[in-house]
TrEMBL record:
Full protein name: Uncharacterized protein
Domain of life where this protein originates: Eukaryota
Length: 302
């Protein structure tokens, strides 16, 4: 009781400042349910405080995370996007989506950072993978690309090309790198490389089921759950022909990136401060200008 009475002497603005620095919603909830004074302060500035804590949790991926949550609420509710940014449903989606992508990060990063001599189809491959540690900047790019891919998976097929068209060149390459990691994970769970168009379509089908589904399948896989085969088969049976790859190849061609997209050296998410990717993008821009100049010169002479 003494602690509670001392807290009541704190000015209201200090309550707000203290609540605004909580790193996640779980800790915020514990405090406002424990102390009446903090509960009252939260009620007075609920929307502002929820936004502050969401930004603390999500960092630079905040905008993409919010776009995804709004689209999910609209899709699941079969209505227009919500007008309130931080409804109870929106907060729940933010927390769940963050958990899903963070959980996948632990394995996807390990696959993306592996040595090229590691065969992902070998039974003992998992113990040979690197730890998967990332810098804050790398992790932020991974999460942002993950939210974009999740939004992409919610779009109808005819909307995929427009979705990718609206991304910058660096965003597009980061997105592709994220999808490469997810595809490696799905391939590894399948146990063998795709040998036919049907196998490739199956992998695309699993990818099209989205991050939440892929995490559920992965957790069943590592636990040896009998649910794994059924879940894997259901996800793969989705109509996934060319999912992501068709729209992506069209997008990189439109953006003049076909010269660098296949380079093994390109690692746009896990490349320190992205120096390697920016150098390659500058090189691609110079090549585009050079090609355009040649084309103009040729048309003049002809």
């Amino acid at each position: 009781m003494a602690r509670q009475s001392k807290l009541t002497t704190i000015p209201p603005d200090i309550y707000h400042q203290l609540l605004s620095i909580f790193p996640n919603f779980r800790e915020l909830k514990i405090v406002i349910l424990t102390y009446r004074c903090f509960h009252d302060a939260f009620k007075a500035r609920r929307k502002i405080l929820l936004r502050d804590v969401a930004q603390n949790l999500l960092g630079h991926s905040f905008d993409e995370a919010m776009l995804l949550a709004r689209e999910q609420e609209a899709a699941y509710g079969r209505g227009a996007p919500p007008t309130e940014d931080f409804s109870t449903k929106i907060v729940s989606l933010i927390v769940t989506n963050h958990y899903v992508l963070r959980s996948l990060e632990r394995v996807v990063v390990r696959l993306l950072k592996r040595d090229k001599d590691i065969d992902i189809y070998e039974a003992g491959m998992w113990v040979r993978l690197p730890s998967g540690d990332t810098s804050p900047a790398e992790s932020s790019r991974y999460m942002t690309a993950g939210y974009r891919f999740w939004r992409f998976s919610l779009q109808r097929q005819k909307e995929h090309a427009v979705f990718l068209k609206n991304l910058t060149r660096s965003q597009l390459l980061e997105l592709n790198h994220f999808v490469t990691g997810l595809r490696d994970l799905v391939d590894a769970m399948g146990g063998h490389p795709p040998e036919s168009d049907h196998d490739k379509d199956f992998i695309s089908g699993v990818l099209s089921s989205g991050p939440q589904s892929i995490l559920n399948i992965w957790e069943a896989f590592v636990s040896g759950d009998e649910y794994f085969d059924e879940a894997f088969g259901i996800a793969g049976d989705c109509d996934g022909e060319g999912f992501f790859s068709y729209a992506y190849m069209d997008a990189i061609d439109r953006k003049g990136l076909h010269r660098i997209c296949a380079l093994d050296a390109l690692e746009p998410i896990f490349d320190g401060d992205n120096e390697k990717m920016h150098k390659l993008l500058k090189k691609a821009a110079k090549e585009r200008k050079k090609a355009a100049a040649k084309k103009k010169e040729h048309s003049v002479h002809s």
